Each structure stands twice: as structure tokens, then as C-alpha cells.
Amino acid sequence: MWLRTSCDLTFDITVPTPFILMLRPRSGAQQWIAHEEYKLTPNVPVFEFTDSYGNLCQRLVAPLGIFSIHTIADVITADNVDQAPGAPFVEIQNLPDTVLSYLLPSRYCESEKFSEMATSITSGQQLGYNQVSAIETWLRNTIRYEPGSSDVPISAVEVNSRQSGVCRDLSHLGIALCRSLSIPARLVVGYLYDLEPMDLHAWFEAYVAGRWYTFDATQSDLKGGYVAIGYGRDAADVAVYNQFGPPVYPMEKNVEVQLIEKEEV
Amino acid sequence: MWLRTSCDLTFDITVPTPFILMLRPRSGAQQWIAHEEYKLTPNVPVFEFTDSYGNLCQRLVAPLGIFSIHTIADVITADNVDQAPGAPFVEIQNLPDTVLSYLLPSRYCESEKFSEMATSITSGQQLGYNQVSAIETWLRNTIRYEPGSSDVPISAVEVNSRQSGVCRDLSHLGIALCRSLSIPARLVVGYLYDLEPMDLHAWFEAYVAGRWYTFDATQSDLKGGYVAIGYGRDAADVAVYNQFGPPVYPMEKNVEVQLIEKEEV
Amino acid sequence: MWLRTSCDLTFDITVPTPFILMLRPRSGAQQWIAHEEYKLTPNVPVFEFTDSYGNLCQRLVAPLGIFSIHTIADVITADNVDQAPGAPFVEIQNLPDTVLSYLLPSRYCESEKFSEMATSITSGQQLGYNQVSAIETWLRNTIRYEPGSSDVPISAVEVNSRQSGVCRDLSHLGIALCRSLSIPARLVVGYLYDLEPMDLHAWFEAYVAGRWYTFDATQSDLKGGYVAIGYGRDAADVAVYNQFGPPVYPMEKNVEVQLIEKEEV
Amino acid sequence: MWLRTSCDLTFDITVPTPFILMLRPRSGAQQWIAHEEYKLTPNVPVFEFTDSYGNLCQRLVAPLGIFSIHTIADVITADNVDQAPGAPFVEIQNLPDTVLSYLLPSRYCESEKFSEMATSITSGQQLGYNQVSAIETWLRNTIRYEPGSSDVPISAVEVNSRQSGVCRDLSHLGIALCRSLSIPARLVVGYLYDLEPMDLHAWFEAYVAGRWYTFDATQSDLKGGYVAIGYGRDAADVAVYNQFGPPVYPMEKNVEVQLIEKEEV
């Protein structure tokens, strides 16, 4: 399906503030960006680089006053998310080198603490996709999804203790559970068509049978319409913006995802 | 200045043909892409990756029939190219690791054969920027620039023997001369505002005083208006398209660079 | 000074166990490995790769029975650690891209929680090296260094609450404090000559004035004799060994660091 | 089999000379280094880095006077080289991104000029391994292998015109022929047990059926005993040493490869 995604952010800057933005979706295996806008007002010098996860990041210093970021992308993405019940676990020794770091604990995914819990949740499941699927179902049924309830990422341990969280938080717990079973897992930040209420979204991917599969415990079933902006070990690696110095919050934030016709692109 | 660049290519494909395209300019230190379109007709699956030079490359298989590629970018780029007469040579031992490969000979820059010639051309010059500047001037005065005269890249040795060439060929000779003096040099492919006749363009950069500087022997003086698409050791690394299987040539190729107002972006 | 370092590990393996080892010190700016041994008994197939921090990692599956790892390196390393009182803070916008990830919170360094505390500890200090130095002194005077007290890494928050820890734990707190001040900081694991009691060691580095500087709150003053094995954001990234499946602990572990004469190498 | 390889180089340096050495074999899929020595006399500061092909490179400035390099490695390597008649060609669109650059022409492998010749040599062969095998056989029967005949690399075109060359030269022609058929191919420099006369050696690898396979037209049949030091597109990328400034040649060069017992390591 063709989607038009947009994200607008406006800040009131009181001291010149270094930012690292991650707002340029990359064309990749799953999606193709046919049209893109990325505007800054006022127009300041920007340096773009690729981080160690392959994300495109934009560095700049926001000047005093109103600073706004306006991005639009027309993207073709899959109508349906690939699912693969029965897809097998990959033995550690057979994982590609580049996937290994997604087995380690990270800031918000204290995977070393979830071994027993993950074993119990996935009890009786075939190793691999079905284990992750059982984790997703368990999250969906157990952890209350409360969109918009928090701005600060919380870790898997905290999510598990609160028994509720935003999309990112549920993903953190899902990732920690996967990694504790030696299944590589990573966080994805991006857009989802028809998300209610509309906002930036986060979900997770697990590596089984030689590739990454999408999981999302916030949705009752896995439909298509995902547009990825960034990948990382957890929310510490994939912030839509990182800002340094005294904290600054967006005065305005507007996210939209519309279905479009190919002809409109 | 704000520029709108476009490149359209149309092929008549008679057997399904794998392509690697390099047609997405990257936002970087020197330029910022505020608006971009990248359309393929028909719309086939594309996989984008970053090559070892940091270029964004697009892989696809062109299907039978008419296949067209349409790209547009609105870019802000410098009004003037930085120049730095007197900027010093960087001793090999002080070069960053990532720059070292630009000292080696490559497919179209047989730098190991130009040591004497480069020494003679740069005789009396201060080591560094001024040597490269002398090479650029020598190329401008010696090698006839014949735009459109050739489609196949030729190497520094061949350019020197023919005493003429297209922009890419002059750059190859410039690069080989620089490297023979232990100055890292690389090829850049992209657009140039006001280029006569308008086409895709190629120029070269040399690394002195801790950064890359732009040189272009095809222009009588260095103005601004450059938009880089790709960087590499020579034309073997930076082809706007690489195609595999029986050779296919564009039926149509249209390149444009317009000056625009910021408001039009 | 020339040092001979050795680390021997012996495991009793009851199910075939995938390991990722990080036991090969790299030759680099600070140290040169003139002689090295790396033996596995029994001798199993090993695959070596470079992780995203530049560490050499060795992957293998340990077979049933006694499995031992024996490593020796003869290394030249600095007699004194570079110190640079007054070396300035690097503005975020001037940091190299590759250093940016060392500003983010990580598994054991919850830097987003230490902003006030770091400001208070470094109050009155010149921005940069002196701030890190004040953090190091504060750690030395405040957090009890209890070598050998723990095998499991603990995070900066936990270290701060316990007010004691092993070398790795003190480093985690030091790193979190630095990052909260926007100073990039990383963990180093390796050897230290004359460490009491002898064991593998951990310390931290902070990036000021354009390079990494060494800090170690476990030593009363900074002498030379450091040999680095691995670098990372924290202990999650730099484990001497990561092991998957049911936990396995070394039956024997022996670490030695001897001063040698150049002639003995 | 266990091998002890050694390479000693001695230079008489008359002006301080920057060197980039590539003399540290890496442990990898095919070989494991259990013991290694790398000594420089006099002992100068060395900086080691990993190049874009994954090779470990050592940078240094050789001081005035006699400068010698002494390296030894005890390596376990396969008794036999894997062979796979019938292993299929990989379609361009299915090649991993990292392999694509080995399809392009490079300094000494002008692959774009060998299309017809390669088609004729491999006529009637199954696509993939058998094509490369036919190229290897053709090289063995057609191009005279003259070890020690040349110190300067020559390109595929020159080798084909001379109809003779050293190991590196034959490999260049083999690589160019493979690439012209869209089979990725790369040069390997290293040691070979029982090579006659003993010296550093070069061979080539081709990518078919999802992995790299070894080919060597200088040997009448493919035995084991290969120890790789470096990989690259051709000899421009994989020089055992690159030296800058006025040319310097080794006064002495001694290469040895001995079969050893595991117990001797």
C-alpha cells in the first residue's frame, strides 16, 4: 500500500541546542521512499551520518527562537506483515556476526533477568517463531497498552512491575524476553497506518529462520502498513530526537499517516 | 543557493536486468536535501544499501519492457566552493585511517605511473593545496575538455595519451597525479548548476589540511552550485547505474539543474 | 614498559555451549602486541569477527568435558598514562560521528538519572578534563572499592545505592556521570600491572579535547601499565566471555601480568 | 594441519618512511592463529587499524638505518581446500551487499574487457563453480607461471598479452574473467605450504553457491595448506607493505612455511 507519513515538530529554543534527529526513513527491503520532504525552519546547517545500526541521523544546532521540523514521506510498504509459524530458532553459532549484539542486554532491556519468566511464557512452544508469538500474545493479554501515558522510556523490569505502558515499553519487555531465550530482538520506531490514537509508533522484531520478523503487542492482529524510521537495541539507540543541554520539549507535535493512491505520489 | 536537480532515465529492457543505481544524493556536510522524489515505472521491489564509501545504492531487477527512473531533489548547496591556497599537505602518518585507501592506485587512476609527471607539474609549489591547484590548472590548460565525447570511462594513462576527455576522464588524470604525490584524491559524481551542456557531472576532491577540497578542471573558475551524488576511488566505484547481463543503454536521458527560490522547495 | 599478560580459563562443560570470547588484545594507538598465544583445549573450530566497537571476538561451541582457554600476550604499553588537566570539553556539534553513541544511556550506565548529581560533583570545575577528574576523585573517596566482591555487573544506579563495588561497577558510575554532562565515556576491560589482587581489570575513558583519556577510580594515582582487551558502552558490550544456554562458570581462572625485558619477548 | 609461517623483511632506510604493513593473518572461518610474533627493530610506535576489507593493517614510520620486521604465526588450516563442482551461480539480485564490490573492475582486473574471452573459455559449462574451474584450468594450461619473474603487479590485460606471470598476475586474470561473467572474485595474499620456490603467495577466490571458494592456477591440483593474510579486489588493495616517499626495497626477505606438530605450538 502507498502511505503518506508526516511528522512535524516545533520547539521554542532558549539556548542554542545540539540535536541529533532520526526522521528520515530509509528505503530498504520492506519499504521504498518515492517522495520525501525534510524541512527545517529556520534553515540551519545539518550534517547527516549513518549510525552503527544503519540509521540516517541528522546533526544540527537549533538556534534561539521557534525551531520547526517538517517531514513528509510517500512510501510503499507491504499490505501484510510476513508471518511464519513454525520458523525455527537459529543456533547461536549460526547467527550472522551482525546480529549478535541484539542478544545482549541493553539500557531498557535487562534480558539477563527474564530467563525464568520467558521459559514459563513459552513453555510447550516450538523453538523459534512460535516462542516469540507466545511472548507477543502474553504481552497483549497481560500488559495494559496505554498510549500516550508516558514520555520517558521505561525498562522491561519497570514495565513488568507496572503491568502497563506505551508501545515502546511493551516492546522493551518483548525484546528482553526474546533475548533471554537467545533469540535476537530489536526495537523499531516508525509509523503505523490506522494507529489509534495516531502518533509515532514502536514495535519489535525477532530474528528467526535467518531473517527479522515483525511483532507488535499493541495491535490485536498483525496487519500491514508499517513504515520503519530507525532500528536499534532499544529506545536509547532509536530516539526520533536526542537533544543535549537543558531539556526542551516540543511545543507542537503532529503525526499523520494517510493512505494515498499511487498516482498521488 | 537552492537548486532543483533532476535525472530521468528510460530503458527498453529485453531480458530482466539487475541494476545497481546510485541516484540518491545524500545530505551531508556540504548539502542538504529538503525534498526528494525517486520513482520507478513500473514500480518494482528495490533494496537500498550503503556501500563502503557511504553512498546510498539501490538494487533492483528491471522487468521486460520500458523501464524508467525519475529522480528530483531540492538541495541547498554552497554559493561558493571553499578554496584554501597554502593549506598544507598532511603527512601520511597523520592521515585518518579512512582516507588511506584514496592513496592507492585504482581501476582508472594508475597513480603509480605518474610520479615524475606530477613532480614536474607541481615543481616549485608549496606542498598541499597549491600542488593540487597546479595540477588542476595544468589539466585545464593541457587536456581538451570534450563533453559528451565518450560513454566509457578511460583511465588516467589513456587520457594523458589522448590529451582530451570528458569531465570524468580529466578527473581521473587529476586524481592519479595527486595520489602519486601522496595526496589522497577521490572522484565525485553529481550535478553542477549552469554546466554547459547540461548533463551529469564529475569532478575530484583532494585531502589537504585535514579535509576534502573540491577541484574541477572543466570549469574556468570554481563557482558554487555542486550537488554530490556519490564518492569513490574512480568511475568504477561511482557509476550512476551499474547493469549486469547483456548491455542496455538508456533510450532517453534527461538531466536538469534549476535555480529555485527557498519558497519553492 | 614490556608486559607479559596471561589469562587461563577452564570450564567443565555439560552441554555443548556457544561462547563469544573477547580475549585478544588489539594492537593500537596505545599498545603493541609483539607476541601472542591463544590456545584452546580441545582445539575446536573458531570464527573471529570484529564487533561494532572494533574489538576482535571469537565464536565457538565448547564441547562436552573439560574445556580450557589459554592466552598470553607480550605487549609494550606506556609507562605513564596521559593526563591533561584543563583539556577542554568538546561541544556536541564538534564530536566525531563515531563518538556520539558513547553519550547515550546504556544497560549499566543510566546516565539520564545522574544529571543533578554530576553537576554537584563537578561544581566549580572547568568544563572537560577537570570535570572527569573531579568525578574520578569523588568515586575514589566515596564508593568503596571491593575487588572480587561480585561476579555480576551492577548498574550505576545500584552502585550509587550500595556505595561499593568492583572495578567495573565504579567505572559504570563514572561513565554515567560523564555522559550526563554530555562528555562521551566508555568502559575498557583489560589488564593492569601491579593490580592488587591480580585479576582482569576494568576502567573508563572519557573523550575531551579531541581524544580519549584514561581514568581509574580504583587506583590511588594513575600509573602506566594498562593493557586494553576491549572497549564498549559498558559491561554488556565488553564481556571477556559471553556464554549462551545454561550458565557455566570457570572452574579455574588464572590471570597474570609480569614485567619483562624487551629481550624476553 | 598445523603450520608455522614466518616472514622477515629488512630495509635500509635513508629518509624516514611511512609504511602500511599487512602482515598479521587474521583468525577466521578457515584458519586459527594459536601463536603469533610480530617484532620491529628498532621498536617504533605502530597504529593498527582494520581496512574496509576486514584486513588488519599496521601504520608506522620507519626511522633512518636498518629497519627489520619479523613475523611468525602458528596456524591451524584445512588439510584440503573445499571444492564444489556443480555449485550454482548466484543471481546478482541475491548476492549479499558486501560482495557486490567484487563484481566491479579494479586497478589490475579490467573485467569489462574480458566478456567475450570468458564466455569462450567457459563455453558449455554449468553456471557457477564449473565456470570458475574452467577458467582456472585454462589459466594453468595457457599462462606460463614464472615465479619470481616480477616485483611490480601487472594487470589482467597485460598478463593476457604476455602470456606469463607470477602468482598474483595469474590471479588478476582469473579474477577479471570471473567478474566479466558476473561472478564476484577477489585476491588473497598469504602463505602456501610446500610452495616451490617458497615465497609469499597469491591466489583467488570466487563467490558461488553463497560462499567463497579457493582457486589457484599456479598449482597442478588444489591441496590444503593455505594461510590467508589479506583479502582485496586486487594487488592494489592487498600489499604486504605499502610504502610512501622515495621507493625502498627490502635488502633481505625471508619467507618460510613449516609443518609442525600440534604439541610444538
Broad shape of chain A: globular
Rg of chain A, Å, rounded: 19 Å
Strand order of the largest sheet of chain A: 3-6-1-14
**Average pLDDT of chain A, to the nearest integer?**
95
Distance between the termini of chain A: 12 Å
Q: Tell me the fraction of residues in β-strands of chain A, as a range.
A: 35-45%
Largest sheet of chain A: 4 strands, antiparallel
The helix-and-strand class of chain A reads alpha+beta
Chain oligomer state = homotetramer
**Greatest interface and its residue counts?**
A-C, 28 and 27 residues
Helical region count of chain A? 4
Which segments of chain A are poorly predicted (pLDDT under 50) over 5 or more consecutive residues? none
Q: State the total count of DSSP E strands of chain A.
A: 14
Question: In a nutshell, what does this entry contain?
Answer:
The structure is a homotetramer of 265-residue chains. Chain A is an alpha+beta fold. The first copy, chain A, has helices spanning 115-121, 129-142, 156-162, 167-180; strands at 2-13, 17-21, 31-41, 47-50, 56-62, 65-77, 144-145, 164-165, 185-192, 201-208, 211-215, 226-232, 241-243, 252-260.
Can you describe what's shown?
The structure is a homotetramer of 265-residue chains. The first copy, chain A, has 265 residues and is of the alpha+beta class. Chain A contains four helices and 14 strands. Chain A has helices spanning 115-121, 129-142, 156-162, 167-180, and strands at 2-13, 17-21, 31-41, 47-50, 56-62, 65-77, 144-145, 164-165, 185-192, 201-208, 211-215, 226-232, 241-243, 252-260. In chain A, the strands form four sheets. Chain A has a four-stranded antiparallel sheet with strand order 3-6-1-14, with no helix packed on it. Chain A has a four-stranded antiparallel sheet with strand order 4-5-2-13, with no helix packed on it. In chain A, β4 and β5 form a beta hairpin. In chain A, α3 (156-162) packs across α4. Chain A is globular, with a radius of gyration of 19 Å. In chain A, 48% of the residues are buried. The mean pLDDT of chain A is 95. The interface between B and D is medium-sized, with 27 and 27 residues. β3 of chain C pairs antiparallel with β3 of chain D, so a sheet runs across the interface.
